[in-house]
Amino acid sequence: MYWVSWALLLFSLFAFVDSAIRREDAYRAADKQTKAFWLIILGLAAAVNFFMGILDFLPIIGLIATIVYIVDVRPALRQVSGGGRRWPRGRGSSSDGPYGPFNGR
């Protein structure tokens, strides 16, 4: 249970940091709650996971809020802001460089 508690804490901290680095206007463009709302909810989830054990009721609610952010809000924010991995996956081929295709010349 100790390792599960640490994993949940790290998961909620990752979601908190991810929500902190996203732009405020991306939340509005994705038609999600505000950035401040998600920072408060995910900050509370991380604090509850830090101070309480996994078998209490509040960490489960924090876990649900974190999962909602990761599964629903984060992909919408990435789509709106144009984020996401472009390298090596994405639109280009494996021979594309930063300025276009590499022709070997």
TrEMBL record:
UniProt xrefs under InterPro entries: DUF2516
Residue ranges, compositional bias (Low complexity): 90-105
Membrane-spanning parts: 38-71
Entry keywords, A to Z: Membrane, Transmembrane, Transmembrane helix
Chain intervals for the UniProt region annotation (Disordered): 80-105
Protein name: DUF2516 family protein
Organism: Streptomyces rhizosphaericus
Lineage: Bacteria, Bacillati, Actinomycetota, Actinomycetes, Kitasatosporales
